[in-house]
Each structure stands twice: as C-alpha cells, then as structure tokens.
C-alpha cells in the first residue's frame, strides 16, 4: 500500500503506526512570507503535525480579480490566494515545511474548484479537501448539479499527480456540513458517500471526516460507525479518519476554548481518528496568529498523549444503522454516485438541517436534547428516527432557542471554568441581551 | 436617510426589546457579501426579524452584488440587511453599497450592515466612516447586540410612503 501514499497520507500512516495523533491547524495568510513562516512554525511545533494552507474567500468563490486586487492594494485577505500568487511564490512558501519533512494540505471550501486544483497540480501539493456536497450546499449558492460535475472533473484531474509519481490524497468535508445542529448519522453518511464519489472518480487515498458535536459519548459512537462503514464500503482504499475540533460557535474564554480542544483530542484518540484539526482560543474573536496556532497544536498533542484508544465501544444508540440506511437510500437512486447524491437532495432523502441552499429541501431540523445529544426534531423526508423529548415534541426553533442551541457548547465550556478578566467578546454579530439556559428545550 | 445608529454599543443598555414590539410588517431583504459562505447569522436574523413581524427574503450565502440589486427590484424591500462574519465584510460591503446606491431606484432604501466585518476584530473609526460614506444607513460592528438592532428597527423611519400597508 505504501506506493499508494503521497507524502501527506504517508506521514499520517507513519504517525498512526507509532501511536501518535497527527495535529493540524487551519491557517492561511495572504502574505507569502507570513504563510511560509506559519508553515515553518507548524513544522517546528512540539507535536506530530502536518501543515495547512487555508485559502482566502475570494479564491474560494472563484473571484480571482478581487484576490489580485487585494494583493495589489494591500487589502487584508483571510487566507492564502493560491491562484493569484505565481507558482514560484507558492513553491517558496511550501519549501520551508517540505525541507523539514512536514507535508502540507490545502484547505479551501470551493464548490467549483477547477482553478484551485489546477494550482495544486502546478505546485505539486498532494493533499486537499472538500466534496461535491459538503462544499456546495452549506457554503455556496452554486447549483448542486454544477458542483457535482466540477468535483468529478477535479478528482479526475487530481489523479494526474500520479504522472509525477505522487499519489493524491483527498479528504471529505462531509463530517462537518454546517458545523452545528446536524445529528451524527447524516454527517457520517455524507462523509462516506463523498468518499465513494472520490473513489468513483479515481482517488485511491482518502480521509473521511467527522466534526466534534455536543456530546462526547455520542461522538465516540459516531466515529465507531464511520470506521465500520469505511471498512464495509471503502475497504480497498488507503484511508483514515480525521476529526475536526468543534466547528460551531467557540468558547470565548481561554480556559473554555482549551477545555473544548482537549476534549476533541481525547475524542480523536478514543474514537480511532488518525488526525485532528485544532482550533485556538482566538477562534471566537478573530483569525488566530501563528503563535496561537502552534500553542493549540501543542496543547492538543499533550492531551492526546495522555489518552488511550477506547477498549470498550460506546453504547449503540443507532447511529451506524441510521447512517447505513441513509447511504443505501442514496445508492438506490443511481449507479453514479454524483447523480444519486443530486437526486437524493432533490427528493429530500438527504436534507441538511438549517441549510439555506436552494437545492436543499430544508424540511429537516436537528435539536439538542436535555441530555445534550443531537437528535432529529423534524425528519423531512429522510429515513431517520425522530426523538421526542419527555412531555411532547420539540418546539419550533425561535431566534432565542437557536442562539441558545448554537451557543450550547461554548456556554458549557465557558461556564465550567472561572471567568477571564476583561469584557467578553461576542461570538455572533448579534448576541442576546440576557443569558440563556445551558440547554435548549 | 435616517440618522446613523452609533457604531458602538451603548454601555448603559436598556432593558431587552421583545422582537414582537420592534416595528413589524416590513419587507426585509437579507443576505451576505459575495465572498462570505457563513449562514448561521442569516438563519438567526431571519428568525429574529420574522418574530418581529417582518417578512424576510433570505438570499443565503455568497450573494453577488447583481443578485442583491435584482432582488431589490423584485421585492422592493423596506430595509436591506447585510450580515457578514468572514472578515471581508468591510471591503466587500463597501463595494456592495456602491453598487446598490448607484441604482437610481435604490438611493433611499435603508441599508444596514453588521457582523465581524474585518480580519482584525473590531473595525477602526475610519473603516466605520468608510462604510457610512459608501451608503450604509447603520453599521453594527462586532459587539453590537440584538436589542440595539431591534431598537434600530423600531425607530427606523422606513420610507413606506406610497406603499400599501
């Protein structure tokens, strides 16, 4: 299998063989010197790391003119514009980490990533992420049909890295979707389906994702379900599981943020993930600095080193069965995974809660139970189980209820720790004038 | 145009405003800037505005300027709300306001912007001034709260003359 791994997948596999969790930041700067310095710092961190180049939002949406304009007039960018920068510049940026043997993944978020994949091929970057569903419905207004076609072409184009002897690696972002209020079965199902889509279009080395949610026990069960489905449905691929530290509203206090990151590191080890994407205490306030990223990587690595893989499996509440049912319902719609995915969303057999995209049915709703677990409040047309709370059905979501649910994890981790000095910063642009209960209804 | 709302929240915050008392009955066009993929802010604002009795057209993620203009023509909104949290809101928001204000039919409609508008936390006074100069009626920088937004909706003298109630 080793010939089937590029530098990125090989580094993860080697760490896994040594029993070490790979930790990775989300990091992107418009300025090449800052980006190179960031990668160098990540490579030198006291942790088993891989580097990240996160692209800016102009590049993500294909607005290369805006990215070039920002570079020309010095406007700040929220990531690295890999298409706008010349190839030699990007090679120089990558050079420092590569010299230290630390591979780099490009993270973007583009529903139509042709230009980004072309840039990856020009510069020889062997790892990236996304997917036809996970980068379209939650994060764009591109029609799903177009995203499916585009991702199919990009996957096929990416396999041309083999011409220069490098096996490309692609990670599905399907385990995140909108980051919050989506019950685990759908996250697991979309991740696996995108992995199958990647395989259909020529990829042989993939990672499937899952994002930390509201309840560690439920998350551990979800990771076990994901690993089992990979074994059953994608056995011939080189693959690993990647966990994302909580992708929703982040704790505002340093203690709360580190507590949540530590919980993610423990979950990654217990749940058999090979790689963890970290977040920093700056997350609730602004784009983190290089130093903050390094500190978060080292914290996660320290916590992970103290944890052991779970010996007993988490209680089975039905996540595996529900994810498997969702996957089978999609696969029935066509032999072509892209067509099947498109039809599934058209018919509402897949339906991402709270997703505003016109191609999403928008009938399903998730909620947080009194026990802190994610459950379905409304199934839409999906074959999933609705869990009624004691005393009736979940109330319709109000603005206050939504804010409380979105802040559930942040509030829990912030309140578990002493308050920090100074005024707390808001986490959404409009924060409520009063405190909410810790649980949603 | 109405007087601009203060760009910073007042420290002596009045008691919470209930959404249902905050005006109501207006048509609000809601969306984000062309580079911003975030939507939880939009989901939240839609609920908040609907609870206040407004009709909301939610344009979702990554709204091109031309689409904002076209939807303004289609729905003739009483208020346009731009919410952005990806750090490009100041740059993209200025461009959006310029495009909207350049349309002869959209010189008077109130346009407000809020969220995390810069990559470095709070905006500078100069950046806030630039947003007003670009055509915004109010700026709700990071730190603005729900009540101040609802109060703004209450006191906004929305140009409803000539419109069926």
TrEMBL record, chain A:
<keyword id="KW-0846">Cobalamin</keyword>
<feature type="region of interest" description="Disordered">
    <location>
        <begin position="416"/>
        <end position="441"/>
    </location>
</feature>
<keyword id="KW-0413">Isomerase</keyword>
<keyword id="KW-0170">Cobalt</keyword>
<dbReference type="GO" id="GO:0031419">
    <property type="term" value="F:cobalamin binding"/>
</dbReference>
<dbReference type="InterPro" id="IPR006396">
    <property type="entry name" value="Glu_mut_E"/>
</dbReference>
<dbReference type="GO" id="GO:0050097">
    <property type="term" value="F:methylaspartate mutase activity"/>
</dbReference>
<dbReference type="GO" id="GO:0019670">
    <property type="term" value="P:anaerobic L-glutamate catabolic process"/>
</dbReference>
<protein>
    <submittedName>
        <fullName>Glutamate mutase subunit E</fullName>
    </submittedName>
</protein>
<dbReference type="Pfam" id="PF06368">
    <property type="entry name" value="Met_asp_mut_E"/>
</dbReference>
<dbReference type="InterPro" id="IPR016176">
    <property type="entry name" value="Cbl-dep_enz_cat"/>
</dbReference>
UniProtKB/TrEMBL annotation, chain B:
<dbReference type="GO" id="GO:0046872">
    <property type="term" value="F:metal ion binding"/>
</dbReference>
<dbReference type="Pfam" id="PF02310">
    <property type="entry name" value="B12-binding"/>
</dbReference>
<feature type="region of interest" description="Disordered">
    <location>
        <begin position="1"/>
        <end position="24"/>
    </location>
</feature>
<dbReference type="InterPro" id="IPR036724">
    <property type="entry name" value="Cobalamin-bd_sf"/>
</dbReference>
<protein>
    <submittedName>
        <fullName>Methylaspartate mutase sigma subunit</fullName>
    </submittedName>
</protein>
<dbReference type="GO" id="GO:0031419">
    <property type="term" value="F:cobalamin binding"/>
</dbReference>
<feature type="compositionally biased region" description="Pro residues">
    <location>
        <begin position="1"/>
        <end position="17"/>
    </location>
</feature>
<dbReference type="InterPro" id="IPR006158">
    <property type="entry name" value="Cobalamin-bd"/>
</dbReference>
<feature type="domain" description="B12-binding">
    <location>
        <begin position="25"/>
        <end position="163"/>
    </location>
</feature>
């Amino acid at each position: 299998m080793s010939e089937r791994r590029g530098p990125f997948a090989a580094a993860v596999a080697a760490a896994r063989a040594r029993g070490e969790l790979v930790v990775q930041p989300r990091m992107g700067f418009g300025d090449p010197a800052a980006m190179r310095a960031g990668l160098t710092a990540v490579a030198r961190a006291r942790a088993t790391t891989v580097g990240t180049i996160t692209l800016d939002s102009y590049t993500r949406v294909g607005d290369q003119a805006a990215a070039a304009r920002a570079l020309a007039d010095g406007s700040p960018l929220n990531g690295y514009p890999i298409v706008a920068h010349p190839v030699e510049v990007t090679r120089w940026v990558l050079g420092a980490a590569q010299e230290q043997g630390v591979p780099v993944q490009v993270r973007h978020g583009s529903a139509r990533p042709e230009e980004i994949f072309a840039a990856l091929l020009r510069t020889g970057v062997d790892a990236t992420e996304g997917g036809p569903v996970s980068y379209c419905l939650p994060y764009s207004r591109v029609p799903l049909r177009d995203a499916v076609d585009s991702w199919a072409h990009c996957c096929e184009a990416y396999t041309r890295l083999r011409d220069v002897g490098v096996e490309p690696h692609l990670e599905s972002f399907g385990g995140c979707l909108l980051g919050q209020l989506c019950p685990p079965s759908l996250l697991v199902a979309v991740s696996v389906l995108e992995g199958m889509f990647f395989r259909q279009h020529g990829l042989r080395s993939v990672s499937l994702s899952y994002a930390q949610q509201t309840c560690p026990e439920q998350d551990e069960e979800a990771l076990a379900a994901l690993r089992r489905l990979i074994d059953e449905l994608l056995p011939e691929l080189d693959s690993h599981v990647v966990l994302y530290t909580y992708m929703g509203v982040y704790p505002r206090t340093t203690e709360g943020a580190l507590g949540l990151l530590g919980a993610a590191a423990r979950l990654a080890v217990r749940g058999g993930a090979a790689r963890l994407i970290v977040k920093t205490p700056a997350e609730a306030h602004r784009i983190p600095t290089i130093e903050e990223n390094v500190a978060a990587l080292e914290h996660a690595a320290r916590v992970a080193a103290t944890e052991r893989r779970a010996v007993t499996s988490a209680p089975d509440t039905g996540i595996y069965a529900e994810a498997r049912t969702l996957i089978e319902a999609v696969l029935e719609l066509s032999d072509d995974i892209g067509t099947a995915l498109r039809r599934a969303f058209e018919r509402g057999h897949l339906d991402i809660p709270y997703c505003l995209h016109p191609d999403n049915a928008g009938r399903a709703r998730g909620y947080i139970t009194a026990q802190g677990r994610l459950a379905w409040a409304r199934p839409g047309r999906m074959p999933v189980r609705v869990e009624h709370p004691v005393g009736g059905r979940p109330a319709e979501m109000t603005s206050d209820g939504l804010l409380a649910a979105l802040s559930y994890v942040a509030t829990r981790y912030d309140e578990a720790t002493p308050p920090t000095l100074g005024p707390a910063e808001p986490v959404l642009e409009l924060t409520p004038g009063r405190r909410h209960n810790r649980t949603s209804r | 145009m109405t007087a601009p709302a203060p760009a910073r929240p007042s420290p002596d915050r009045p008691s919470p405003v209930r959404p249902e008392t905050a005006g109501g009955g207006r048509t609000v066009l809601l969306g984000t800037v062309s580079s911003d993929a975030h939507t939880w802010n939009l989901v939240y604002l839609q609920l908040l505005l609907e609870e206040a009795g407004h009709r909301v057209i939610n344009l979702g993620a990554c709204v091109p300027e031309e689409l904002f203009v076209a939807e303004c023509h289609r729905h003739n909104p009483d208020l346009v709300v731009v919410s952005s949290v990806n750090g490009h809101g100041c740059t993209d928001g200025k461009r959006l306001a310029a495009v909207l204000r350049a349309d002869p039919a959209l010189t008077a409609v109130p346009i407000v912007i809020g969220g995390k508008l810069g990559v470095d936390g709070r905006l500078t006074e100069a950046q806030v001034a630039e947003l007003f100069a670009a055509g915004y009626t109010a700026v709700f920088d990071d730190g603005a709260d729900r009540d101040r937004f609802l109060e703004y909706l209450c006191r906004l003298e929305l140009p409803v003359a000539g419109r069926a109630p």
